[in-house]
Automatic annotation (TrEMBL), chains A, B, C:
<dbReference type="GO" id="GO:0019698">
    <property type="term" value="P:D-galacturonate catabolic process"/>
</dbReference>
<keyword id="KW-0413">Isomerase</keyword>
<dbReference type="Pfam" id="PF02614">
    <property type="entry name" value="UxaC"/>
</dbReference>
<dbReference type="GO" id="GO:0042840">
    <property type="term" value="P:D-glucuronate catabolic process"/>
</dbReference>
<protein>
    <recommendedName>
        <fullName>Uronate isomerase</fullName>
        <ecNumber>5.3.1.12</ecNumber>
    </recommendedName>
</protein>
<dbReference type="GO" id="GO:0008880">
    <property type="term" value="F:glucuronate isomerase activity"/>
</dbReference>
<dbReference type="InterPro" id="IPR003766">
    <property type="entry name" value="Uronate_isomerase"/>
</dbReference>
<dbReference type="InterPro" id="IPR032466">
    <property type="entry name" value="Metal_Hydrolase"/>
</dbReference>
<feature type="compositionally biased region" description="Low complexity">
    <location>
        <begin position="1"/>
        <end position="10"/>
    </location>
</feature>
<feature type="region of interest" description="Disordered">
    <location>
        <begin position="1"/>
        <end position="26"/>
    </location>
</feature>
<comment type="pathway">
    <text>Carbohydrate metabolism; pentose and glucuronate interconversion.</text>
</comment>
<comment type="similarity">
    <text>Belongs to the metallo-dependent hydrolases superfamily. Uronate isomerase family.</text>
</comment>
Length: 489, 489, 489
């Protein structure tokens, strides 16, 4: 096996440099020879299909500027919260990884030093999706020759740096090189969308915005008053209560649709969509505008506004994406010191059956609503998510999210939801990353998982091979396209 | 593989007709050659054992009348909520499937049209148990020659229709043809049991009733007052409060026992069995009789009455089956329009450890109580259900229920509960279907799953092959028999 | 396969005696030939490593006395709650198993009779970890020649009895024979630690105590006032309120550290660590000292005291082990009649993300805190436990606990947590048994599971074989050592 394995011996078993590094073509496929050979046949049919990336977090400005990426560390290490959190969990300080401090305090600034710290801890990533993705980025995208280790750190740093300096590795060139057919970004409700316009003018209309209004739907967020003021300015509507807040949101959604947006995205602590009495909802908004916020009322209002978002989707056709169940910034001191998205978001139990009932009562059969549900609580797969998606025409299941976006997590997802939701009530694979170079790695992993799962159905005579291949193409390409249809022209 | 696969290419890859259609003998067995060969040996020992069907929902009138079944659509499509919900989830209207409207509004009435709609959406069922069951019904029971598709719809319709017209396919003849040794029906507390008496008189005492008092244990159900009045009439006891309600229930249970019943069946939202003060319970019943219902009190009373059901089981010996954790009629508009059981029942988190404590404190060691627990919340398998069944003599675990009655769901059940409950604290396989022709398919699937699971234990040297075969016979036949013993001479 | 299987045909298929009995060397390894061969290579590297047993419940007095064990039944049957609960669940009375009654009522006292009862029910343990462990104890440790059955009961009883009479099977000799490098016992907060001192004086300092203060952290326990009084006496500090309670606990922790303790252990119903206002906490303690206890306040205080335990660990360096989520003594009548630990402890849903937040806010990054989390609620593996352990430096995940300490439970644990926590945020294997002779069986099972899991990663090209072997040694030996570092010298 070792002759054909996917990666090097890690930090603690000696690694030479310049020895070359290739990934095994069967990585991530089932070991059993019968399944392996079937999975290979399925994978061949989908491996090189274009990438439909409808839920990314790449900064649109990066694409508009289209400049060479920075150094290896600031591209691949510092902003990757999967990677940072693992190193931190084993005692590596945020400072040593160059994660900026809000107080301007000193952190490591030498990218080579940061890279060495990462490389010398490579063994921590054994068995993790982070390693599987990084191996794809380093070998398949960047052509790195050596496995990460303390010994090879400088060599790999130089290999990556050289590659990043090449014109073919500028952001827009990479869209082609990586086979990305469409790329959705995530944009605040008050975004000016100028970068998207500029890109479209230059022929890059395949980069589309996504309407993400979380900041203005949660009146208990510290920056809510500023954010809602900016929303009003951008919309040309002064927000004085619920009606003007809704009007401003509708106005901005129109602007997003005009800019090519196909979807909205909502990150809420719970999936609650219980309506409030409009007068009560207005009272909460007005009070919040005065700076008076009751936490319980704020939580209730966010559910009411989520229901309003569904109503607006039935009117403007934007696909509604819901990502509930993550308690953000679990450690308040880290949040104060480093800000959000540094690895301290922790899932909580998430209920869907009762929480979504008000929304589905109203709009579950509405021909213009598409509600895509994501979760980090796999306990809901077979109990709530598949039964809901398996009956309501408006509901689709997104791909396993975040901590479940893994070889085994995606396998468990298919095993748990296919029984009741089938394949066609899922969106196929939807990636979710801010790491641009990692997008193909996410799709590659998902395609391998689906190939392995479909291979098992064939081997157990539950599906024909031709059906499996056709379904694999659906999951990799057709379903994501169909789940996020264009609203323009 | 394709030469030996179980089914055709589905709606979107062309399907010819008259090409013949057979199911692979190894369908549903593990792919690994070592496991496959062991699983075959286990399956051979159980595949043709008689069927003990102790939890069915077949209408007893259908058996008493013993007339030929209707057309293919009204037998296999319209009443099957698994099938209907999947088609609805992909945008097929209930009307097009001929699901009747309560307002008498027009729905599709041409069974051939309904069959075409079903057949042309065959691809939606890829990977689902519905397909696995239907394949068994169509090929093994009805001898259909063509795989369902738009192209073959008329041919398969005619093949099924012809078969259903044969005398050998009348309900009672099918009891023999399908190898059903005993069939339990589900009957309301006020059922007159005349059909069972008539069948017994004709020598069909293998058709036994099951006491299902849900309608009268939930005072918040809209029809409760009518139902409880009918209960009183049938029992010859006017229900004026808790004592008379309990007396009427006891009287009816006696009638069910006399009619050959072996079990009761209880569908509650929660598994709560907390007793109320009898005076308070009486007050709630009396108020409900006046039409005054407080939801919380109604819910509490249903728990109190569940505990009374356990007490009665210790007296009359009826096995107590509990099916908690399903929120019925999730979409109220569909319920108003189409009634219950059209696919909108959605599971919720279900707690057992605390909920069942009052019942188990009182009766968990009672020699005459057998409490069979079912669930659609697989998260409780290893955490609560196996530990409870693994210590209380009164408790047995029923088969994975409803959305979990699948190849992968039943495998996960064995993997999760055997560690702590073993095999002998389960009932073996108990089917749960209103689709008469599908009963053998349910047992066939369960026998394949258990054969595969037991094969793995043998291959991992955790069990001997002779033990595995013996255990397979227990799960398929002996344990279901033992779990529901006859109460009559 | 049968020629090489691990065990006999069980009670109901005839078993001869004196036929010899050996365990298959590959038991518990994956069946697939590719995985089997890789797993063998991994297992070879770890199978004979010394045992680090940091969470045992062996009575230290048994080691100090170092006398021959009693008869086979009182060693292997009566005290084993896994075994007793399974027999009870199938109708064998506690009395027949010799489980003592608190009221002094008569129970079976003939160990041979008890052994016969156990042996004649051997088939109940098919597929359970109890059987897997017992097979190791009987064959590998005690050299029993016959598989348990009614027929072989007397023969196996005599074989075990003879072996137990040999000097080489006295407790201390077994520490060497079983390859136990270090053994932690569990000791109440008021333990005099004399046995540990005596053992150390005789050169057996490898037997270390563990500080288990549950009895004095729960003011609602019936014996709390007695226990806290004894705590005060032992500490030389009269407990009159919260400050003196904390002072006494700190004093006792110092004594435990001096006696070689490396850890504390906490069994709480919930993982809550919410601080109370100190005045309120003091009020609850003072009231409890007067015998006045409010259940809610008692529960809240136990969370407050758990937080104090973490604070003390940051000061004295004792590793903090938390075992939440078990509802003890589910059947109060059995508890009154037989006392605790006879099989009636049932898991409940356990929340970690919010419950541990107060503790982790304060100490999650503290260099001297190590918090080891155990669970019997596997639903929290991927949703809460792995994300917490994957970012907080203080947190490690212990091995799957109790009902999850099984071949399939441990496999599911690795599959669910490795994605986010990796291997190095787990403690490796930590056993948890009061059955001394069973300790090697627990480690043997865990090593087989990890060998199988790592083999799959290699076969799927997610890991190199040399990395897998190195990681296996970490999980079996290095990580448990590192997780519980010595505090002395």
């Amino acid at each position: 096996m070792t002759a054909t394995t996917t990666s090097g011996p890690g930090a603690r078993t000696g690694a030479g440099t310049g020895t070359g590094w290739t990934l095994h073509p069967d990585r991530g496929l089932p070991a059993d020879p019968v399944l392996r050979s079937l999975a290979r046949q399925v994978l061949e049919a989908i491996q090189h299909l274009p990438i439909v990336s409808m839920h990314g977090h790449v900064d649109v400005g990066l694409l508009e500027r289209d400049e060479a990426f920075g150094d290896p560390a600031s591209l691949l290490v510092v902003p990757d919260h999967y990677l940072v959190r693992m190193l931190v969990s084993q005692g590596v300080p945020h400072d040593a990884l160059g994660v900026p401090r809000r107080d301007g305090g000193a952190v490591e600034t030498d990218p080579r030093e940061i890279w060495r710290t990462f490389a010398s801890h490579w063994h921590l990533f054994r068995g993790t999706p982070t390693r599987f993705w990084l191996e794809h980025v380093l070998v398949e995208v960047l052509g790195v020759q050596d496995r990460p280790s303390a010994a090879s750190a400088d060599a790999t740093y130089d290999q990556v740096a050289t590659r990043l300096a090449e014109p073919g590795f500028r952001p827009l060139a990479l869209l082609d090189r990586l086979g990305i057919e469409i790329l959705a970004t995530t944009d605040a409700a008050d975004a000016d969308l100028g970068s998207h316009a500029a890109l479209a003018a230059r022929g890059w209309s395949r980069v589309v915005p996504t309407f993400r209004p979380d900041a203005v739907l949660h009146v208990d967020r510290p920056t809510w008053r500023t954010d809602v003021a900016r929303l009003g300015e951008r919309a040309g509507i002064e927000v004085t209560g619920l009606p003007t807040l809704l009007a401003a949101l509708e106005e901005r959604r129109r602007a997003f649709v005009a800019a090519g947006a196909r979807a909205t995205d909502h990150g809420h602590l719970s999936a609650d969509t219980t309506p409030l009495d409009p007068a009560e909802a207005d009272r909460v908004v007005v009070a919040a505008l005065r700076g008076e916020v009751e936490p319980a009322a704020a939580q209730a209002l966010s559910g009411h506004l989520l229901l309003e978002m569904a109503r607006m989707s039935t009117e403007d056709g934007l696909v509604m994406q819901l990502h509930p169940g993550v308690l953000r910034d679990h450690d308040p001191r880290v949040h104060v010191q480093r800000g959000p998205d540094v690895g301290y978001d922790i899932p909580v139990v998430t209920e869907y059956t009762r929480a979504l009932r008000p929304l589905l009562e109203r709009y579950g059969h509405h021909p213009r609503l598409r509600l895509v549900l994501f979760t980090v609580d796999e306990d809901a797969f077979s109990r709530e998510l598949a039964p809901l998606a398996g009956v309501y025409p408006a509901v689709r299941l997104g791909a396993p999210w975040w901590f479940l976006d893994t070889l085994d997590g995606m396998r468990r997802f298919r095993e748990a939801v296919t029984d009741t939701a089938g394949f066609f009530n899922t969106t196929g694979f939807v990636d979710d990353t801010r790491a641009f170079l990692s997008i193909p790695a996410r799709h590659d992993m998902a395609r391998r998982v689906d190939a392995g799962y479909l291979a098992r159905l064939v081997a157990e005579h539950r599906l024909d091979l031709d059906e499996a291949v056709e379904t694999a193409v659906d999951l990799a390409y057709r379903l994501p396209q169909a789940a996020y249809p264009p609203l323009l022209g």
